[in-house]
Amino acid sequence: MFKQLLLIGTGGFIGSVARYLVSRLSARVEWFSIPIGTLVVNVVGSLLIGFLIGISEKSPIISVEWRMFLMVGLCGGFTTFSSFTGENLMLIRNGQVLPLLLYTALSILLGFTAVYLGYISTKLMS
Question: Can you tell me the distance from the alpha carbon of 82 to that of 84, in angstroms, rounded to the nearest whole number?
Answer without folding.
Answer: 5
